[in-house]
Amino acid sequence: MQRLLQKSLHLIMVLSILLISLPSCKSKQPPPKKPPVPVTASYVEKKSMPVYIKAIGNVEAYSQVSVKSQISGILTRVHFKEGQFVKKGELLFTIDPAPYEAALKQATANLARDVAQLNNARTEVKRYEELVKKGYISASQFDQIKTNADSLEAAVKADEAIVENARLQLKYCYINSPISGKAGSLIVHEGNLIKANADTPMVIINQIKPIYVTFSVPEQFLPEIKKYMSTGKVKTQVFINKDTEHPVEGILTFIENAVDPDTGTIKLKSIFNNNDNRLWPGQFVDVLIILTIQKDALVIPSKAVMTGQGGQFVYVIKEDLSVENRPVAVSRTIADEAVIEKGLQSGERIVTDGQLRLMPGSKVQVKETTESIK
Q1: Does 108 lie in the same domain as 196?
Q2: Total domain count for the chain?
Q3: Distance set, CA 285 to CA 60, 195, 268, 335 (Å)
Q4: What is the domain extent for residue 81?
Q5: Are 36 and 193 in contact (CB under 8 A)?
Q6: What DSSP state is assigned to residue 368?
Q7: Rounded distance between C-alpha atoms, residue 218 and residue 222, angstroms
Q8: Spatial separation of the C-alpha atoms in residues 238 and 256, rounded to whole Å
């Protein structure tokens, strides 16, 4: 009986040891491997990139003309439509010419009368000049006749001036466009009484080909801008409504002659051909002042750059398809491209999409690789 009891105790001990060892054996099994994270990638590329200054600009008309009448009268005809492009010299308005035609006829008639009297007076002067030499008339009588002729000559000159002014007044009845540009809203309409040099213009015309964009930059950029302007033309690019793929290109033409002491900025102005009419007066645009071109710059897609507690970084894909968290210094961003100052080398492959599921050492499966940055 005692021997049977010893065997039972031995069996219980063996079973206890087995039960204790089973969990430890199970814990020593390796954890299941995580599947690779699908990502898209791109290569670090060397290319020429612009060195620029960024600003917010406002589009201004190259020139603006407020059209006013120089005479008073009834507006009988408007020869264009609101918002129409008009050419320099094109007829815009006609003011009733009848009163001015009548004034010209009267002035012309007065001139003709005084010319006839002057011709008669000159004839008398010649006749009496011979008589005074022979002593038939006194010198005082001759002086009176000559004075009358001189007076008529002055009257003729005055009449000629009046006729010329009358012609000018008649010419003012026909108002032509002084520039080529875009006509604005009509402020007067046919049948209105127009006053000479009224405070309100009849229409405003903006010349938009070419066109200006004005903007301001901090004064610390002034020496660099002046340096590059002295060596050649400084190009500028304008982006409309965040359209980074289709910039409008122009030339920097103007630097204000003084820094604004209130803001510490300097006003600049660029000119654009605007042949496609994309720029419009009053529009706000993003401006890039391209100072020079940096050759062999390291460029990656800007979406590859992440920001963490330690600053900006990218995930670099190693040969074994694991990723490394690499700190980088971004010099500048242009559209969807980032220029890297340090942290990467040309030809390295980086993750451009799928970073949120990664951590250092993660394995990746590259779904797509961009060979070159567009």
Answers
A1: no
A2: 4
A3: 11, 39, 14, 14
A4: 69-96+173-200
A5: no
A6: E
A7: 8
A8: 20
Q: What is the CATH number of the domain that holds 186?
A: 2.40.50.100
The CATH number of residue 237's host domain is: 2.40.30.170
* pLDDT tens for each residue of the chain, 374 residues long: 555 545 555 555 655 555 555 554 445 566 667 788 999 999 999 998 888 899 999 999 999 999 999 999 999 999 999 999 999 999 999 999 999 999 999 999 999 998 898 888 888 777 767 676 766 677 777 677 788 888 888 989 999 999 999 999 999 999 999 999 999 999 999 999 999 999 999 999 999 999 999 999 999 999 999 999 988 889 999 999 877 788 999 999 999 999 999 999 999 999 999 999 999 999 999 999 998 888 989 999 999 999 988 899 999 999 999 999 999 999 888 778 999 999 999 999 999 999 888 889 999 999 877 755 44
Helix (H, G, I), strand (E, B) or coil at 168: helix
215 located within any domain: yes
Six token digits for residue 256? 């204000």
Look at residue 13 and tell me if it is in a domain. no
Indicate whether 163 and 237 sit together in one domain: no
Give the C-alpha separation, 87 to 182, whole Å: 9
Q: Same domain for 263 and 335?
A: no
| Three-class SS state of 140 | helix
Kindly state whether residues 259 and 351 are assigned to the same domain: no
Using CA atoms, how far residue 176 sits from 17, 80, 147, in Å, is 112, 11, 45
Does residue 148 share a domain with residue 110?
yes
Neighbours of 159 (CB within 10 A): 20
d(CA 19, CA 16): 5
Give the distance between the most distant pair of CA atoms in the chain: 194
